[in-house]
Amino acid sequence: MQINYQVVVFDSADLEGESAFWAGVLGGTVDRDDDWHRVLVDGEPRIAVQLDPEHMRPGWPDGTPQQIHLDLWVDDFEAAHEHVTALGAEVLKPTTRETRSAYQVYSDPSGHPFCLCWRT
């Protein structure tokens, strides 16, 4: 079996907002269909967003469990933090360098958790 692309698909009630967020984070563009958007980076699909009008935000960490999350490894955490929050990310679990944790947890506009990670 040959797999040509491996793509994570997020459900969202806000198809446009969710796909624009991930295109901004990944430095890509959005390829739009009626109920399905693909985020392309250098012409290759990286993430897709599927319209789900019934989608409910996960309440993690204090409520319903997370459904999926991405770890994004960055060289410059401060710049990455500013970038994703300007696009609409919300910090779910603050982490400081003093705790020696090498990640901070965010949510995208539809509530899907993701982490910005760095090496200590």
Describe the protein's architecture and organization.
With 120 residues, this protein is an alpha/beta fold. It has two domains: 1-55, Immunoglobulin-like, CATH 2.60.40; 56-120, 2,3-Dihydroxybiphenyl 1,2-Dioxygenase, domain 1 (Roll), CATH 3.10.180. It has helices at 15-26, 77-86; strands at residues 8-12, 29-32, 36-41, 44-51, 70-73, 90-93, 103-107, 113-117. Strands 1-4-3-2 form a four-stranded mixed sheet, with helices on one face. Strands 5-8-7-6 form a four-stranded mixed sheet, with helices on one face. Strand 7 (103-107) and strand 8 (113-117) form a beta hairpin. The N and C termini lie far apart (38 Å). The mean pLDDT is 88.
The overall strand count is 8
**Rg (CA only):** 15 Å
Structural class: alpha/beta
For the termini, the CA-CA separation is: 38 Å
- The CATH topology assignment of the largest domain is 2,3-Dihydroxybiphenyl 1,2-Dioxygenase, domain 1
Largest sheet, described in full? 4 strands, mixed
Strand content: 25-35%
Helical coverage, percent range: 10-25%
* Low-pLDDT ranges: none
The CATH superfamily label of the largest domain reads 2,3-Dihydroxybiphenyl 1,2-Dioxygenase, domain 1
Strands of the largest sheet, in order across it? 1-4-3-2
| Shape descriptor | globular
How many helical elements? 2
- Overall tally of structural domains: 2
Q: What's the CATH architecture of the largest domain?
A: Roll
CATH class categorisation of the largest domain: Alpha Beta
Q: Please trace the helix and strand order, writing H or E for each element.
A: EHEEEEHEEE
- What value does the average pLDDT take? 88
